[in-house]
Sequence to fold (101 residues):
Amino acid sequence: LICAVLCINCFILDELQKHLAVTEKLLGDIIPDWAEENSKAFGAVKELEEMAVKIDTDLPRSLALVLDLSHKVCKEAALQNQKVTEDTHSQETVKLWYFDE
Fold:
């Protein structure tokens, strides 16, 4: 009886070893491809992170420049509008707008 149990265990172990060998081969075939893809993905994520940090630091500076330019354009437009308005009215009317005379 013990001999029969040992033979069955040996048979089971042999079958298990065959299945493990097949599994090891399949994993060996798959893992290098995954490792290469993960490496590429990691590089892309790292590049994306660097771009996000750069944009995060550049954005406030760009916004400040846009706001400053907007202020200058509005000021220039107001001055141009003021000049056109003053040129279309008499000097006496313009004096009344700016001076209490």
In short: The mean pLDDT is 85. The longest helix spans residues 2-88. The CA atoms of residues 36 and 42 lie 10 Å apart. DSSP finds two helices and no strands in the chain.
